[in-house]
Specification:
The structure holds 2 protein chains of 2 kinds.
Chain A (H helix, E strand, L loop, with lengths): L2 E3 L6 E3 L5 H6 L27 E2 L5 H8 L3 H9 L6 H7 L5 H4 L3 E2 L4
Parallel strand pairs in A: 3-4
Antiparallel strand pairs in A: 1-2
Helix pairs in contact in A: 2-3
Chain B lengths: L11 H16 L7 E2 L11 E7 L21 E7 L2 E10 L7 H26 L11 E3 L7 E3 L12 H13 L7 E5 L1 H11 L4 H7 L1 H8 L4 E3 L2 E5 L4 E3 L14 E8 L3 E3 L11 E6 L13 E6 L2 E12 L7 E4 L20 E3 L3 E9 L3 E6 L10 E7 L6 E10 L4 E14 L5 E6 L1
Parallel strand pairs in B: 1-19, 5-12, 6-23, 7-9
Antiparallel strand pairs in B: 2-3, 4-22, 7-18, 8-9, 10-18, 11-13, 11-17, 13-16, 14-15, 14-17, 15-16, 18-23, 19-22, 20-21, 21-22
Helix pairs in contact in B: 1-2
The chains are: A alpha+beta, B alpha+beta.
């Protein structure tokens, strides 16, 4: 038997074939789950990604915003350019957890 | 009482309608177990036929020396049956068709019409037994599908072929609701009927050899047969249930652990003046990846282990407010028809599943299932059509045959037949399900 969804609550309801038309028209059921897709579980409250950071090019503000760094960390990052790999970052600014940020970094040269 | 014959009864369309109605009375099973014709009047498609009955009252043991009795106004339960189906089929007849004999034409045409109407109508009436809707908040349960379940299970809790225990279980559940013991009917699937009545019909010795059990079953299945407090009949409209591919959104799982159970306080009887809960239980499940949307309201769930069926229940509500801990609301009935309390479920041991069920057989007291049949307006004189509308005075089934619109280019004319009908379960306490293979 087909499953239809309550248009308001999204509860799935198993409907006999003889009742499908009635559920769709009179009761307003729909063929899809109207509820928004579930939000993925957060990994410790990190801010949502704000785009890839060009570590050798971006401004002080972009470094801070995209990587979630403090102003002092962003300034140190800018002053110690250039970088070609994550190991450079770890060596020059060890206070930042670069392993967690690696996926957000682009090493394009200025 | 036989239908009343009039001077027009020799007309072809009248004879066809009479033949169809006779056949319809034979092939329709659900109208045999329903109350029909309870409100006179003229109706059209979509109209509502009203149901109204007094709410149940209960006397107290009065001690006038201590306190006087309490007087309450009578309460009524109201509902409606919507005439939602205008069953129709039509066919062309050609002047060049060899009709052989008029008797044969009437016989064949009438039978086709009866089958054409009877089958979908039985399926429609059967569908009422599983037609739950999604709800939130408090719900007064009255004119709703059944929640009571009896099940035919073996010692390991697996469903078996239909047997007396499932029927008795449904009877027990109806007894607990004070359902009258007379006029109880069970419509079971052909598979269930074969298994059940084969057991029940005793054929021994010479008779068994000469008649054969197959023939005995064939004869036994005609009509309604009394068994264990029910008139048992067979219907091709009995449905089954297929287990969802997975209860979980990610991995393929067929059972979910029950984290906790609690008595529900949302579902109550519509029939009592004071709030009385129907005994629903909220099952909080452990579902790490979220409940699959193929678990739905109206499905029948199994509570138990691989070696024991603790209970079965119709899913009344699904709450996924906490995705990993969905809450399923159902009224758990043990296979023998006893309604279980939350403390009779063992979280951590009992598991939740939605099983395969071969036959979801239906049981009802006649008053629990209502059916209305009304006639539509016949073609007016001068319209070029002729009509025959007849109603069986016993079952109130009716059929209408309209014929006309002759096409001289193709030497053909249109024949149409109709039945305007609607059905409703009046009281869930007078209905039940019996699960079997």
């Amino acid at each position: 038997m087909p499953i239809l969804f309550d248009r308001v609550t999204g509860q799935p309801v198993q409907v006999h074939e003889m009742q499908v038309k009635k559920y769709r028209t009179k009761l307003g059921y729909v063929d899809y789950d109207p509820r928004p897709a579930p939000v993925p579980i957060s990994n410790g409250g990190d801010a949502p990604p704000t785009g890839i950071c060009k570590i050798n090019i971006d401004s002080l503000k972009d470094l801070s915003d995209k990587l979630g760094l403090s102003t002092a960390e962003a300034k140190a990052l800018k002053d110690n350019r250039p970088y070609t790999r994550v190991e450079d970052l770890m060596a020059k600014i060890p206070s930042v957890p670069w392993a967690n940020l690696e996926s957000k970094i682009n090493y394009e040269a200025a | 009482m036989a239908p009343t014959f009039t001077a027009n009864d020799s007309l072809l369309e009248v004879r066809i309608a009479q033949k169809a109605l006779t056949q319809l009375n034979l092939v329709c099973m659900y109208p045999k177990v329903a109350v029909v014709d309870y409100e006179p009047g003229a109706f059209e498609v979509g109209n509502d036929v009203k149901i109204r009955r007094p709410k149940r009252r209960r006397a107290i043991s009065l001690d006038p020396r201590v306190a006087s009795g309490t007087f309450n106004e009578a309460g009524f339960f109201s509902g409606t049956v919507t005439l939602e189906n205008l069953w129709f089929d039509g066919w062309l007849t050609y002047g060049i068709d060899p009709r052989q004999t008029i008797e044969k034409y009437i016989d064949e045409t009438g039978s086709q019409m009866a089958d054409s109407i009877g089958t979908p109508n039985d399926e429609y009436m059967n569908s009422l037994f599983t037609s739950w809707v999604a709800t939130t908040g408090a719900v007064a349960v009255g004119a709703n599908p059944p929640i009571a379940i009896g099940a035919c299970v073996d010692s390991n809790g697996n469903l078996t072929s239909f047997n007396s225990s499932g029927l008795i279980g449904a009877g027990v559940a109806m007894d607990k609701e004070n359902c009258p013991p007379d006029n109880r009917y069970a419509l079971i699937s052909p598979v269930a009927a074969g298994a059940f009545l084969q057991d029940a019909i005793a054929i021994t010795g010479f008779a068994a050899a000469s008649i054969g059990s197959g023939q005995a079953i064939e004869f036994g299945l005609k009509g309604l047969i009394p068994r264990f407090g029910f008139m048992v009949g067979m219907s091709n409209s009995i449905t089954s249930q297929a287990a969802p591919t997975s209860l979980d959104t990610v991995s393929s799982v067929s059972t979910l652990a029950i984290a906790s159970v609690a008595a529900d306080t949302n579902f109550s009887y519509a029939d009592y003046n004071s709030t009385t809960y129907i005994g629903a239980v909220n099952f909080t499940l452990t579902c790490p990846n979220g409940l699959n949307t193929n678990v739905a309201v109206g499905q029948i769930a199994r509570i138990g282990t691989s070696s024991r069926a603790t209970a079965f229940g119709v899913i009344l509500r699904i709450s996924t407010a906490t995705a990993t801990a969905p809450v399923i609301t159902l009224v758990p009935f043990s296979p023998n028809g006893a309604k279980l309390l939350p403390n009779q479920i063992t979280p951590g041991t009992d598991l939740f599943s939605v099983p395969n069920i071969g036959s979801i057989n239906t049981v009802n007291h006649r008053e629990g299932l209502l059916m209305a049949v009304r006639q539509i307006m016949e073609p007016s004189p001068g319209s070029g059509a002729v009509a025959a509308s007849i109603v069986d005075p016993d079952t109130n089934l009716g059929i209408q045959v309209f014929r006309g619109n002759y096409d001289t280019g193709t030497v053909s004319e249109k024949n149409a037949y109709y039945m305007l009908t609607g059905s409703q379960i009046s009281d869930f306490r007078k209905t039940a399900l019996v699960l079997s293979l």
